[in-house]
Amino acid sequence: KQEVTQIPAALSVPEGENLVLNCSFTDSAIYNLQWFRQDPGKGLTSLLLIQSSQREQTSGRLNASLDKSSGRSTLYIAASQPGDSATYLCAVRGGGTGTASKLTFGTGTRLQVTL
Amino acid sequence: NAGVTQTPKFRILKIGQSMTLQCTQDMNHNYMYWYRQDPGMGLKLIYYSVGAGITDKGEVPNGYNVSRSTTEDFPLRLELAAPSQTSVYFCASRPGQNTDTQYFGPGTRLTVL
Fold it and tell me: Mind listing the pLDDT tens digit for each residue in A5-18?
């Protein structure tokens, strides 16, 4: 059974810092990995999606990397801003069919960027 | 284009009551999903649908039922509510098999007392 872990559970940084969020998964037979942002009281917004054949994806100040063989992904946020404060979740999609191909979510990292 | 909408936003139920959580999407997406998110936990899949008339169980389906009579709507039914069903429920949709990005609704916060 796939398990997804995110470390740290919470992180507070001053504005302007670069930071890295970590995600690890136990079964390397994944189809893809996604990073989501969740604001309080709201749904999830997809930030980046990395296919299993890819090593990284970039969008603006965000860069996500994937090392499938070691079961790890990182989300790098450059020059953090208070507006980046949110919970960040990673989710992996299994490579099988049926429920096995559905998303397995981590518990998230709650990020606070202070002024 | 409203995306994925969910009603109600909040609800308190007594043990044994039943209710339906509504989910509607206006993007003509084939795939729809119901998740629950318990405090400090990741999302867990309850049920999903790959098109009108087709539904299937996810990871935690017990105590819930779904139907998909139209492309737009995917209601989630709770029968005989229990305290263990206290959670935040999210509905999501995605266009189809070739796109993995899911679009989420704002969630319904349900408390069962």
Answer: 999 999 999 999 99
